[in-house]
Automatic annotation (TrEMBL), chain A:
Name assigned to this protein: Carbohydrate ABC transporter membrane protein 2 (CUT1 family)
Signal sequence extent: none
A Pfam short name: BPD_transp_1
Gene3D superfamilies: MetI-like
Cellular component GO terms, alphabetical: plasma membrane
Membership in a protein family: Belongs to the binding-protein-dependent transport system permease family.
Organism: Halanaerobium saccharolyticum
Keywords (A to Z) from UniProt: Cell membrane, Membrane, Transmembrane, Transmembrane helix, Transport
Matching CDD domains: TM_PBP2
Transmembrane segments: 15-39, 79-101, 110-131, 143-162, 195-222, 242-266
Tagged with keyword Aminoacyl-tRNA synthetase: no
Localization in the cell: Cell membrane
TrEMBL record, chain B:
Keyword Transmembrane part of the UniProt annotation: yes
Name under which the protein is recorded: Carbohydrate ABC transporter membrane protein 1 (CUT1 family)
Segment forming the signal sequence: none
Stored PROSITE patterns: ABC_TM1 (PS50928)
Source species: Halanaerobium saccharolyticum
Keywords from the UniProt entry: Cell membrane, Membrane, Transmembrane, Transmembrane helix, Transport
One term under GO cellular component: plasma membrane
Membrane topology of the entry: Multi-pass membrane protein
Tree of life domain: Bacteria
GO biological process, one term: transmembrane transport
Stated family: Belongs to the binding-protein-dependent transport system permease family.
């Protein structure tokens, strides 16, 4: 039987569809596995194997991780650290982005590339001096040490991002405002900031996840367990509940809920932010 | 205010912060790498002694080699799979949006969270991997994936690959949408095969994206601290140690701050090559 081109195309697409379906299921297996583990008891898994039907479904692991494992404190700390850092870094980077996008001056390209390069350096080159600096300023082992380093370090990516967005805002708008006697700061505040809101939303989504997911700075700048964000808290949890994997995995799921919420509602912005600067 | 001072009025406060918390510390670490310092008393200047010591340090070599293995695997698996998936998903496939979201979903999880979940997957008793192998009749392959020095590094990299592949796919997808469909159509009319289309049309047009993907992949692989710290702490017998983690242990566990600083400088120097590549690509985009 002879197949038409149209039929061949449909068959090919069917095969690709099926292959992708299988791939995606395998790809998501760790997530399914984690969810399944978190609602079972360790005894059930150990006695009957992972691929057995759960004897009973329980949410006890989540409660254990939440209260005994201190996830409630850790998650609260994560928010206390993330939100001020986010506001701080967006405020400072809007100034940088505006200056680099709007004005031609000597050193513009140099400062731009410095921020772009700065976002890519390894944290290791900063760890010791920032540890020492925060000791010197008396903010070691407090939320402030983490808020400061996140605010300043994330300026690299945020300035890069906002500069590239603001450069697309037409010059005529500020010319018109200037004729009406607006100051440069007013142009920034009344024209550029409102027009950049979509970019700032994209950036806020990405940065929320990045700051929330930070681990190494929490290790270096905090000593007190009560101050730790949820990432460092999970490491503590791993030490305290060594073999109770269902509690640990339940904790990992709880730790992820805030970023999942942000991602689900702001997915469009998230992707726009991530792919910036690559599709040109 | 004079016109030429205006940009600096906007830049002064952010630049002051950046100098104190990022630029200054970078330079200070370079200085510290030339000292011996326990973190308590004053640093003692001693020239290039730390670097000479690095040359004779077997753990440093192991970490460097592990970084290199990590880099090679990261360049091979996520980049190839990511590109392949991007090409498939750029076509009209049912549920394409759902597939994309599923494949890059690991990206929103913290590396620490992934490290924890994968530690469970690799558990010898009750873990998902060994259980699955037993279930499908491959019991002889089961082992303690993270406690065996022969498999531990690859097990850790596996978790990192899972997180990175979706990112690569996203980057290639955005690169592919920038290619005009008429170019592809024209080549199809001229009778180019699927492979020829890929090799001679799509791949060359994707070059700017590919450079960014390669650089980001290199940098991500060299930044791998969280996975190692959470899953193995560099063990067993340093078989999973990498420079980023070795630096942390030397400086903050063993209080060899000067020595730690010299490891950081080596890591920085390697990454600097890729950072310069990235900056050149950015600048090229600016000049166009």
């Amino acid at each position: 039987m002879e197949l038409s081109i149209h039929q061949k195309k449909r068959i090919r697409q069917g095969i690709i569809f099926a292959a992708l379906l299988v791939f995606t299921i395998v790809w998501l297996l760790p997530i399914f596995g984690a969810v399944l583990t978190s609602i079972r008891t360790m005894d059930d898994i150990m006695n009957n194997g992972f691929w057995s039907l759960p004897k009973n479904v329980t949410f006890k692991n989540f409660f254990t991780a939440w209260s005994e494992g201190n996830l409630n404190t850790y998650l609260k700390n994560s928010f206390i650290i993330t939100i001020p850092s986010l506001i701080g870094t967006l405020a400072l980077s809007s100034l940088v982005g505006f200056a680099l996008a709007k004005y031609k001056f000597k050193g513009n390209m140099f400062i731009y590339l410095m921020f772009v390069g700065g976002m890519l350096i390894p944290f290791q080159i900063l760890l010791i001096p920032v540890f020492r600096l925060s000791n010197y300023l008396g903010i070691y082992n407090s939320y402030w040490g983490l808020i400061m380093i996140h605010t300043v370090f994330q300026m690299g990516f945020c300035s890069f991002f906002l500069r590239n967005y603001m450069i697309t805002i037409p010059e005529e708008l500020s010319e018109a405002a200037r004729i009406d006697g607006a100051s440069e700061f007013k142009i920034f505040y009344k024209i550029y900031m409102p027009l950049s809101l979509p970019a700032i939303a994209a950036l806020a989504t990405l940065e929320f996840t990045w700051i929330f997911n930070d681990y190494i700075w929490a290790l270096v700048l905090l000593r007190d367990d009560r101050l730790k964000p949820v990432t460092a808290g999970l490491a503590t949890l791993k030490g305290n509940f060594i073999t109770s994997w269902s509690v640990l995995v339940a904790g990992a799921i709880l730790a992820t809920i805030p970023t999942i919420v942000v991602f689900v509602f702001l997915q469009k912005y998230f992707i726009r932010g991530l792919t910036m600067g690559s599709g040109k | 205010m004079k016109r030429k001072y205006i940009p600096w009025a906007f830049l002064s406060i952010p630049l002051a912060f950046y100098t104190v918390w990022v630029i200054g510390p970078t330079i200070y670490t370079m200085y510290l790498s030339l000292t011996e310092w326990d973190g308590m008393t004053a640093p003692q200047f001693q020239g290039i002694d730390n670097y000479l010591q690095l040359f004779n340090d077997p753990i440093f070599y192991t970490s460097l080699v592990n970084n290199f293995k990590w880099l090679v695997i990261f360049m091979a698996i996520p980049v190839v799979i990511g590109l392949f998936l991007a090409i498939l998903l750029s076509k009209e496939i049912k549920w394409a949006r759902g597939y994309k979201a599923a494949i890059y979903s690991p990206m929103i999880l913290a590396p620490v969270v992934i490290g924890l979940i994968w530690s469970w997957i690799y558990q010898p008793q009750g873990g998902l991997l060994n259980n699955t192998l037993t279930y499908i009749g491959l019991e002889e392959l089961t082992r303690g994936w993270l406690s065996n020095p022969n498999t531990a590094l690859y097990a850790v990299i596996g978790a990192a690959v899972w997180r990175h592949t979706g990112y690569v796919m996203l980057l290639f997808l955005s690169g592919l949408t920038a290619i005009s469909p008429t170019v592809i159509e024209a080549s199809r009319i001229d009778g180019a095969s699927a492979w020829q289309r890929f090799r001679y049309i799509i791949l060359p047009l994707l070059k700017p994206t590919t450079v960014i993907v390669i650089v980001i992949t290199m940098i991500q692989s060299l930044r791998a601290f969280d996975f190692v710290s959470m899953m193995t702490r560099g063990g067993p017998f340093n078989s999973t140690n990498v420079l980023a983690h070795y630096m942390y242990t030397e400086a903050f566990k063993n209080y060899n701050m000067g020595y730690g600083a010299s490891i950081a400088v080596v890591l920085f120097a390697i990454m600097f090559i890729f950072i310069v590549m990235y900056l050149r690509q950015i600048r090229k985009g600016e000049l166009e």
